[in-house]
Write a structure and sequence with these properties.
Length: 248
């Protein structure tokens, strides 16, 4: 079966519909640094999850810890949601392949919401690639999300009541919880936008594609400003502590 693209008002809606369509029960693994909307969507879908620590080199989820949990008790788990932190463009095929080697029926989501967008060429051993054109994404439209589904993957959608104010309140709750470092209880309000998009999937694709080049140039300019000179050491790299003590 060929891969296919699904298009929604938000990437969170794509994730919600996909999770509700997965037949395999169990817990999902996700990185501890994930955007708070993701665990909120899991809560909304009534699906359990566990956080995994972050790898200091890639700033993505730790592969050793992920494989260790899956190997020790694979029957407890349904899948892994991998996030490309800061739009990481590296090759993680070995990670996805390793998950499927443990159990071919485990689901793998490659969250590329901050990465360079595309509409074709699903990564091997990935069941869903997730993209966003919302706030502060590679191409920022202020709305829109899509996913590339592996052939044969189910995607059952439905329309629920939605209130924009409820979504804004949810985002504000995220800010307050992170600021105050307290537990978050996901509200069962109408914050998930499952409305049908007002434009066609092809019109949306053309809109995104037409802005990729401009967005890439803008990102390159920002990266040039933010990149440290080569004589500076990485904050967690060799010699950082020595450099810090010598400058104090």
């Amino acid at each position: 079966m060929t891969d296919r693209v699904v298009f929604e008002q938000r990437a969170s809606t794509v994730l919600y519909h996909y999770l509700r369509s997965v037949a395999r029960p169990g817990i999902w693994l996700m990185p501890a640094s994930v955007c708070p909307i993701v665990p909120a969507v899991f809560k909304r879908a009534k699906i359990d999850f566990e956080f995994v620590d972050i790898d200091r080199q890639t700033l993505c989820m730790d592969s050793f810890q992920t494989f260790s949990r899956l190997k020790n008790e694979v029957s407890r788990y349904a899948g892994v949601l991998f996030v490309r932190s800061y739009g990481h463009s590296g090759d993680f095929s070995h990670f996805f392949r390793g998950i499927k080697a443990i159990d071919a029926n485990l689901k793998v989501i490659d969250d590329r919401c901050l990465a360079h967008p595309r509409f074709t060429s699903l990564e091997q051993n990935v069941d869903l690639e997730l993209y966003s054109s919302g706030y502060s994404k590679f191409v920022e439209l202020g709305w829109g999300g899509w996913g590339i589904l592996s052939g044969g993957e189910l995607y059952l959608s439905d329309v629920q009541a939605y209130e924009p104010e409820a979504h804004e309140e949810l985002v504000e709750q995220f800010r307050m919880v992170l600021k105050e470092r307290r537990l978050f209880n996901c509200p069962q309000t109408r914050w998930l936008d499952t409305r049908f998009p007002e434009i066609s999937a092809e019109a949306f694709r053309c809109m995104v594609v037409s802005r990729i080049e401009e967005s890439a140039r803008h990102r390159d300019r920002l990266n040039a400003i933010l990149t440290l000179p080569s004589e500076h050491v990485a904050l967690n790299g060799p010699g950082f502590e020595e450099k810090l003590s010598s400058s104090s």
